[in-house]
Each structure stands twice: as C-alpha cells, then as structure tokens.
Amino acid sequence: MGEIFAWIIGWDLLLEYALGAATVAVGWSGYAVSFLKDLGIVLPATLTAATGSQVMLADGSMTQAVLNLPAVGAIAVISLLLILGIRESAKFNSIIVIVKLVVILAFLVFGVWHINSANWTPFIPANTGKFGEYGFSGILRGAGVIFFAYIGFDAVSTAAQEAKQPQRDMPIGIIGSLFISTLLYIAVALVLTGIVPYKSLNVADPIAVGVNVIGLRWLALAVKIGAILGLSSVMLVLTYGQTRILYSISHDGLLPPLFSKIHPRFRTPHLSTLMLGVFVSVLAGCVPISTLSELVSIGTLFAFIVVCAGVLYLRYTQPGLHRPFRCPLVPFVPLTGILVCLYLIVGVPRETWLRLFVWLGVGLVIYLFYGQLHSVLYRKRKAQHNSSS
User: Fold this and answer.
1) What residues make up the domain containing 146?
2) CA max distance for the chain
C-alpha cells in the first residue's frame, strides 16, 4: 500500500505494544502486591499506584501515590532478559505458559463449585443513562477497551524472522492460540463473575479477588503466582515484539541505525530494548491503567483495520503473489474484520481518540523530516534516477 502506510502501521504498533506492556505491568503489580500481602509483606500504598492517583494509607487517610514501583521493576527485569538473548527468553516463556495454564484450569475446576447464579442476574445490567455504563453500550465499550488482549496473537508474527519455518508455524501459532485462549477467556469470565459480584471486579487483580472469596489459601497463592508468571510472559512477548518492529523499521531506514544495532555477544537489539524499557517503565509507573488500556485498544483496533484493508488491497492488485498462507473467504473475512473493528472503536472515549491522533501526528512529522529522506526505498529510487539521467 506504499511506504507511508507502512510507516503509519509501524508507528501505531509501537504505541500498541509499548502501552500494552505498560498496562500488563500495572496488572502484574496488582497481583504482586496482593501476593506479598498474603506473605505478610505490605508495600507502601504510595509506591504501588500511578503517580497522582488517590490511595488509602494504613490509618485510613487518603493521599496521592508517587510511583507504581513494582510495575517499573517488572519492565526493567523483562528488558534485561530480552537483552541477554532470545533463546533464554523463549525457554523462560515456555515454562511460564505451562504453569499459568495449569493454574487457570485449577481456578476453573475449584471455582465452578462456588458459583452463585444470582451474581449473573441480570446478565446484562441496565444502562445508567450514560453511554458505556452497563447495558449494550457498556458491552460495546468493554469489548473496545479489553481488545488489547488480542495483541498477543498479533505478536506471534513479529517472531517470523527468528522462526525456522514461519510459513507453516505462524498460521498454526496465531490461529491455535486464538482458539484456545478465547475458550479460556470465556470460561474464566463466567466463573469469576459467578463467584464475585461484577461491581467488585473493577481492580487491577480481579482473579485474586475471586480466589480470596473461595477461601482456599493454597489455591489463592497458586493463582496469584500463576497470574504473576502469566503476566510476566505477556510483558515479555509484547516487549520482544516491540523491539523487533523497531528493528525492522530502522533496517528499512525509517528510523536511525541505532535501533537496528545488534549486540556483538548476545545478538539482540540491545540499544532499542534498553530505550524502550526506560520508556515503558515510566508509562507503567506513572499512568493509570484505565488510560493505558484505552489507548492500547484503540491502537490495536486501528492496526487491525489497516491490516484487513491491506489483505483486500493485495488480493486485487497482486492476485498472483505467492502466499504460503492464504486468507480464506476474501472479501468477506477482511470486510467483516474492518466493520467489527469500526464498531468496537466507536465505544472508545473521545479523549483516547485525541491521544491517538496526537501520537500519529508526531509520527508523521518524524517520517516527513527523517524517515522518507533516509529510507532504503528512497535511496534506491534516487540512485535509479541518477543513473538514468
């Protein structure tokens, strides 16, 4: 679709992955604080929430938080792990995935016996009169906000350059994980809202609230450990994907070469990983989770719209292109994808739209004054022009 569209989608993905990692880090912090509290270790409230947010002290008084320190620390450790190497990171992630799946299944098995069906009545709470607060508009806004959970499936594609057989492995990884995760999302949501009234779940660690109600201490500890490890793997995947996107953009000349510089020993883009780690940790420590999640979701929806449009564009402009994996039922699938994303994006708050436009505006400025002048395509066109003249 042209270099300008490539830049727009790449710049949007940077927002999507950076804020996604920061959002998950805040959730990780919530579970870590809850777990440490169970062990008798209570962290100061002023160091466990976003800068400026209201927190309650031990004496019951209210004050403003300074920084979400656990979230900052989590991103720092993940960034260090990614600098050390992809092989070590992959082993770490594989172990975590197994552990968190076992924990999720344990929560479902024990939680189903504590469901109170009264918590599901009404299954769709009545709208309060304000758009997005319960009712069908609440479902729309909730789906639009939580859509960032689908970044993980998109992130599989960023590992294509380091996969042995990407033409075969990428479709299996994306579609397989999508199917399994969707079933688990639905099951956990049903059990959790059956155990705890939905109004009690507007917290950073909702599953911790659920297992505390069940009353099994060992299960509570296991679930919180699983959540901590699970969210660690999500942060790892998102941060990894972000560094590889930066590497590709820089390799194409649209960003300075330092973003594609490889460490001589670890063979990883260490400089970009380090800079991104600092940027994401600041976001995780200072910005509320609601603001982060809304921005991530609108960035994800925008990216998916462009991707669906790209499938349509290529299918009609280059029908004979070699396609190791061929999207089925074109144009129905991409058109449906575009319409569903547009439907969900309507529910995102107006302030979030403004923040997205500001981010894209900054990106266009960088592209106009640096990217297009240093891109590989521009240099090739310039060389061809000079040779022909």
Assistant:
1) 3-388
2) 80
- Mean pLDDT on 210-229: 82
Q: Is the dihedral of CA 354, 358, 364, 365 positive or negative?
A: positive
Cis peptide, bond prior to residue 331, ω within 30 of zero: yes
In this prediction, residue 376 carries a pLDDT of 86
Which residue carries 């042995």 as its tokens?
A: 164
pTM passes above 0.70: yes
User: Is the bond leading into 125 cis (omega within 30 degrees of zero)?
Assistant: no
Dump pLDDT digits (tens) for 84-94. Answer: 876 666 677 77
Q: Which residues pair with 56 in a beta bridge?
A: 62
User: 63 - beta bridge partners?
Assistant: 55
- Give the pLDDT of residue 86: 63
Encoding tokens for residue 49? 């929430």
Find, among 197, 207, 213, 211, the residue nearest to 120 by Cα.
197
Asked if 374 and 2 touch (Cβ cutoff 8 Å), the reply is no
Which residue reads 């082993």 in tokens? 91
Count the neighbouring beta carbons within 10 Å of the beta carbon of residue 296.
28
Q: Is the confidence at residue 10, as pLDDT, over 70? A: yes
Element spanning 363, H or E: helix 350-366
Inter-residue contact 79 to 276 (CB < 8 Å): yes
Q: What is the CATH number of the domain that holds 191?
A: 1.20.1740.10
The number of distinct structural domains making up the chain is 1
Joined tokens for residue 289: 């989770």
Tokens representing 193 are 């809202």
